[in-house]
Amino acid sequence: MASAKPPELDAQIQALCEVLNAYGVTYLVFGSMAGRLQGAELQTLDVDVVPESSPDNLQRLADALNTLRPRWRPDDTSEGLKIDGRLQARHFLRDSMAVGLVTRLGYLDVLLRPAGFETGYQALFPHSVTVVLGDVEIRVGSVEDLVVSKKLVGRPKDLLHLAELEHLLAERQQPDLGP
Q1: What is the pLDDT of residues 3-43, one digit of tens each?
Q2: Minimal CA–CA distance to 86: which of 61, 106, 111?
Q3: Which long-range contacts (CB under 8 A, 24 or more apart) does 170-174 make?
Q4: Do residues 73 and 67 lie in contact, with contact meaning Cβ atoms separated by under 8 Å?
Q5: DSSP secondary structure of 6-66
Q6: Cα distance between residue 122 and residue 120, in whole Å
Q7: Per-domain boundaries in the chain
Q8: 7-173 in CATH: which number?
Q9: Beta bridge partners of 46
Q10: Do 64 and 95 contact (CB within 8 A), yes or no?
Q11: What is the pTM of this model?
């Protein structure tokens, strides 16, 4: 078994979700961070957030993220590009797969339609679970849904993570024989 999650990553996701929760944002964490929060030994640089896509909720998301000094993230090495003005709900409605941001709490991708789940939050919520980190409740996409999405995306890093996620699923399906 690999080592435990780095504490700084736990602190980052906890702080991010604390802000989103305080603003009443309806969302779930997806991608590799969701796998990590459920016990998979995955390396990741960012947090993928899938918000419920109503205009009011997207504005709450923008308001919450504005408190974290967001910048546009053109790549995984940049400090980001200045946002002209403040984030608004409309910024999340672009046709791109994800809206990438750099915040004071790290890298963040906002996904309205993850691969395999084109209705986004509504499709993912029924299988999602709640994880508690510190005193923060975090809704996360299921490991099964992560496997489906990563297979569809098919990037090299997703395929590497796929093996760990499938291993986690297999462990969970083994009967508990007790002491």
Answers
A1: 344 458 888 999 999 999 999 999 999 999 999 999 998 88
A2: 61
A3: 172/143
A4: no
A5: PHHHHHHHHHHHHHHHHTT--EEEEHHHHHHHTT-----SEEEEEE---HHHHHHHHHHHH
A6: 6
A7: 7-173
A8: 3.30.460.40
A9: 107
A10: no
A11: 0.86
